[in-house]
Amino acid sequence: MIKSLIINPGSTSTKLGIFEDETLVSEETLRHSTEEISQFEKIVDQMGFRKNLILNFLKESGQDIKSFNVIVGRGGLLKPIPSGTYAVTDALVEDLKNAVGGEHASNLGGILAKSIADEIGVPSYIVDPVVVDELDDVARISGVPELPRVSIFHALNQKAVAKRYAKESGKKYEDLNLIVVHMGGGVSVGAHRDGKVVDVFNALSGDGAFSPERAGAVPPGALVEMCFSGKYTQAEIKKKLIGNGGFNAYLGTNDARDVLKMRETDSKASLVYDAFIYQVCKDIGAQATVLKGKVDQIIITGGISYSDIVTNDIKDRVGFIAPITIYPGEDELLALAQGALRVMNKEEEAMIY
User: Fold this and answer.
1) DSSP character for 169?
2) Burial of 1 (0-12, 13-18, 19+ CB in 10 A)
3) Per-residue pLDDT tens digits of the chain, which is 353 residues long
4) Is this prediction's pTM over 0.70?
5) Spatial distance between the Cα atoms of 212 and 64, rounded to a whole number of angstroms
6) Residue 296 and residue 286: Cα distance in Å, rounded?
7) Tally of CB atoms within 10 A around 254
8) Is 34 exposed, middle or buried (0-12, 13-18, 19+ CB in 10 A)?
9) What is the Cα–Cα distance from 186 to 188, expressed in whole angstroms?
10) In a 3-state reduction of DSSP, which class is residue 106?
11) Dihedral angle over CA of 328, 331, 332, 333, nearest 10
12) CA angle 69, 97, 68 (to 5 degrees)
């Protein structure tokens, strides 16, 4: 049996999971107030604060820190890398500390994992960070050489549900053509071919469907005019695209459950909801062309996929392309545990950053 500690840092919380093999023994969310977080200038400066909270929680829960065989952290904004489970090396930690891909709370995952693991003499890993990049070269061309398309998406959950479907189907992930749709705070739609995500809509900024809090693809000419109108700062424009876009911009909420209620009596909410479904389905159709129409399965996942209304509306539009499987939610803690287990059990070799 392999006992693992999983660390998934978010902007205002640190989610912890304790697993024995694939069995969740304990789960806890350590929440951090705005006051606590605001005292730190940079995200990396929070490391000691969060580490102490984790160690105190384990102690109060009666968990012997030395009983863990492996520590796993959520991957952060690193340089683009292939999918896999990565050993947390000094070079990887250095890039997380220097925020080479940008500032994000997930950058703390690998740093915390290695710090705790080194103290007890066990390995530390990260698994499928958001910068996983397996794009076909043709998918990188945007139309402006200085602005190549990039791969930033819900790699951890997309890969986990794709492999889960393959396992449940008695097939190899590498032998399947899949379209995976993740719908949460952001939306990403990826084409999985030969075990790689060969094309995906950038879930963070500038690609594909809008989401509860992101604008997705917007008319570029109008965006340029907005940027140079003098009415907005660069930070304000970015906030319009990431954070205050999508449902937030139109309806003042980033909760899809609110939107589903509002649409029953509000024609504007109904139209915005319909546009969301419309755009997600357009992305699915686009990825079907990437796979030349040979799609074995469409997989829908993420928090919004708990809604039968949403998934049925998507099925109505794209069911002609391929059968559809739904895996609601995003079991990131389990996905991280499984990634480390594959290495610990010698099913895969650890990747080196």
Assistant:
1) H
2) exposed
3) 999 999 999 878 899 999 999 999 999 999 888 788 888 988 999 999 999 999 999 999 999 999 999 999 999 999 999 999 999 999 999 999 999 988 888 999 999 999 999 999 999 999 999 899 999 999 999 999 999 999 999 999 999 999 999 999 999 999 999 999 999 989 999 999 999 999 999 988 779 999 999 999 999 999 999 999 999 999 999 999 988 999 999 999 999 999 999 999 999 999 999 999 999 999 999 999 999 999 999 999 999 999 999 999 999 999 999 999 999 988 889 999 999 999 999 999 999 99
4) yes
5) 40
6) 15
7) 19
8) exposed
9) 7
10) coil
11) 170
12) 10
Tokens of 238: 């970015």
Structure token digits, residue 78: 């690193």
Beta-carbon contacts of 281 under 8 Å, excluding residues fewer than 6 positions away, are 314, 317, 318
CB count, 10 Å around CB of 62? 6
